[in-house]
Amino acid sequence: MATVTILDGGTGRELKRIGAPFRQPEWSALALIEAPHFVTQVHESYVAAGADVITTNSYALVPFHLGDERYATDATRLAQLSGDLARAVADAAARPVRVAGSLPPVCGSYRADLFDATVARPLVERLVDALRGRVDHWQGETLSAIEEAELLRQVIGEDGLPLWLSYTLADGDGDGPATLRSGESVAAAVEASVRLGADAVLFNCSQPEVMGAAV
Questions:
Q1: Are residues 198 and 116 part of one domain?
Q2: Checking phi first, is residue 50 left (phi over 0); if not, alpha (psi -120 to 50) or beta?
Q3: I need a labelling partner for 149 at 20 to 30 A (CA). Which of 33, 119, 140, 202 fits?
């Protein structure tokens, strides 16, 4: 019998919908900075809706969103807070709920051309170090290129926690073969994910018909 795992939905849009502090460039990080109880509310709402997995609100904890000065002084504390908030909600749930540690595309969302492993490595290392001990699995999100996934595995190492890799796909009508935004094939991404020891391969922030073709 197949087991269905229900993940939570987007955090940023839900924070905005419920009236949390929200603006660019901080985006979903602003609620962590100014009103973290809204982040708790989002996690609790997703658990109440049936989510088996809730995701740390760490996607925007990168220099692009925080700015260089705030990133330098506050990124570690905010990442730890994002893990603590999710962990508290999961532990208080009446049924088993797991926490996914969100690891975003630190050089820019949807822009495989901006990825630079030398720049990205210390940013990923900071997030991983801050979230360790607070999450049940690592979740690379909105990955536009295979090399982003490879860097995550290198930084995380073999720490015993499952690794989920979620890719974002190039726009299209769903009739042709689906590709990552880098132009790499989905087959190549899946093969790389298996090689990297990923426990799950997912797609997010992509057109539904393209995700259907990718599956």
A1: yes
A2: left
A3: 33
